[in-house]
Amino acid sequence: EMEDCLRSRLAIEADLKRALVTEQLEAFYQPIFNTVTGHLWGFEALIRWHHPTLGLVSPIEFVPLAEETGLIKSVGAWLVRRVCADMAQIPSPLKIAVNLSPRQLEDDELIEDITEALNSSGMDAGRFEFEITESTLLNNNTRSRFILLALRRMGATIALDDFGTGYSPLTYLTRFPLDKLKIDRSFISQMATRQDAAAIVRTIVQLAHQLHMTTTAEGVETEEQLQLIRKAGCTNVQGYLLGQPMALGDVVNRIGPEHILPATSWSATRSSGNDATSSHEFAD
């Protein structure tokens, strides 16, 4: 069993190396909305692998392997280049959120790769939001802080993903250059049924506000969750209720002229409905 597992791992690793040069990887984009206006804030970039024999391989299967083997640096660099090229077709000022792994923040060439991608595409760095996890802050604090500050100086913003589920002390919120807290879906999914989960979400939002940060609620799947998120004062929201990840072509075809794609929950609260477009047109 150990031998079979190792052979499978080595095969996937070799296939992933080939995928980087044979255009098997693709960037998908999930919409993120402003909770007050219903306007489209931007997208989160998510990677997909079209394997020639295995079909569509989930990131859950290959990203951890890429992390362990160090291939995540090449995969991450590819994603940044792809996003920069794609954003030329997604009108400004819509923004794009891209995840950075702990291994990427150890890469001495990360800033150079991002700068090169920006220069070659003409994309404004201010449209980037880089997401990091709490575990990133535990690894090589000095190096991570240096990289994040460099990204900040370029004009990008920094978001702390899955906030509240890791081990980071709150002191990290003042030691690192952070602009946003992303509230993990595990809290959002229980807001309607557990008072403690709802209280945690409200507390995170209030904390972010006091620290002059914004917030994004992840994994919103029901109208009730959306209403609770709005009531809590969260800045942005994303989830299958509002739109699933999709290919660039679908994004370009479905963006409205005013970038207003509210869910049905917004249509009831907006004073005028003449600029409202159903978000379900945006979902697969």
Describe this structure in words.
The protein is α/β, with parallel strands linked by helices and 284 residues long. The protein is built from 12 helices and 9 strands. The chain has an 8-stranded mixed beta barrel. The C terminus is likely disordered.
Nearest-integer average pLDDT: 85
Low-pLDDT sequence parts: 261-284
Terminal Cα span: 39 Å
Q: What is the H/E order?
A: HEEEHHEHEHHEHEHHEHEHH
What percentage of residues falls in helices of 4 or more residues? 40-55%
Strand content: 15-25%
Strand-pairing-aware structural class: alpha/beta
What is the count of β-strands? Answer: 9
Specify the overall morphology.
globular
Short description:
The chain has helices at residues 2-19, 59-69, 72-87, 110-121, 134-138, 141-154, 172-175, 185-188, 195-210, 223-232, 248-254, 264-267, and strands spanning 25-34, 40-51, 55-57, 95-99, 128-133, 157-163, 180-183, 214-217, 236-237. The protein has 284 residues and is an alpha/beta fold. The protein is globular and about 50 Å long.
